[in-house]
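Q: What would this chain look like folded?
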Amino acid sequence: MKPAALPEALAEPTVRVRPGWTSLLFFANIGLWLAIYAPIQVLLPEQAELLDAAHKEVVFGLVTGVGAVVSLVVNPLVGLASDRTRSRFGRRHPWTLAGAIIGAAGLAVLAMAGNVAVMTAGWCLVQAGLNGMLATLTSTVPDRVPVAQRAWIGGLVGISQMLGTVVGAVLVTVLITELPGGYLACAVVVVVGAVLFVLRTPDLPLPRDWPVERWRAALAQLWISPRRQPDFAWAWGCHFMINLGNALGTFYLLFFLKDAVHYPDPDTGLLIMMGLYGAALVVGGLGVGYLSDSSGRRKPFVLLSVAVMALAALLLTLWQTWPAALAASPLLGLGFGAYWAVALAILTQVLPTAADRAKDLGVVNIANLLPQVIAPLLATVILADLGGYPALFGASAIATLAAGGLILGVRKVR
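A: My prediction, written as structure tokens:
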């Protein structure tokens, strides 16, 4: 019997994506990351301090840690579900829109939270919704973007993460300074970005008669064997260590400026650092994205990015001063932008099967999200008992350098 032809939704893309599609993906990602990082960088720490000033670090770590556990579960499950969705509206768009709405509802809960329990519940709802949205937005890259264009698009995705962080910081520290208003503004932005992307871009559906596994069999596929897929495992490990190093180095910046640097206006200081970080990230992301796609090389740029990010962490390990923070910020941005430009290209090139792109990228996103669980726990111990902020940034440098060793194990990608 002749095998069924692969549907267009699962075929490897060959037509370069146009600027209009790229712009809508870019803005949807900005809204997504703004709604995640404006709370993490500013709103959640401030709310933790309002609710329990004496134990603000513990409250912040608890809330973000529990929320990250939710994200670890939701991201691959939504990816798995979208891979098997046979709606006439497409596979990804229904989940993207639903995720944005659920995330916005969680932000509204946070705006009204008067105790740690409600704060935790609201953040869990945010993480559930926005990680569902993240799973489907990420999968649109291998769905629609040819391999020869992926580092450039990956660079733009990395820039959107940075811009979401910077614009979010401006939004909630300059434009809207009240805590409830900041949360609600984030909710509006993420929904608008999702709606525009869903309404204005195509989402190829699976044929209604395309066979899909039963859920029990599908869930078993969440495990990807490192023995059978070694390149995927090495790339996943690299991505995990990069994100662990980044989380250790950035999660506590507001408290770092307050308690170690003693900067007189920590909110403004964080905004300045994010501005320098963002400008350098744009340079690193676009420059390396172009060079990587032109040369077809990926791994050398990962090694370069690892060295630059580790140097940024080492600066803050040695000197907890405002000038050191100003020097480290653009270095971290340059390195992280360069890494993201090639990371998405590498990760999408080592996916096991086209039929499970979103599920497999959901597993990849665990490497992005698991550090959000581990980093607050590690940071709490390090800050309290193992040397404070110098040790915290030292741990960030070690994790980042380890990522460089892991990427060398990938054989399929140069």
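The chain has a mean pLDDT of 88.
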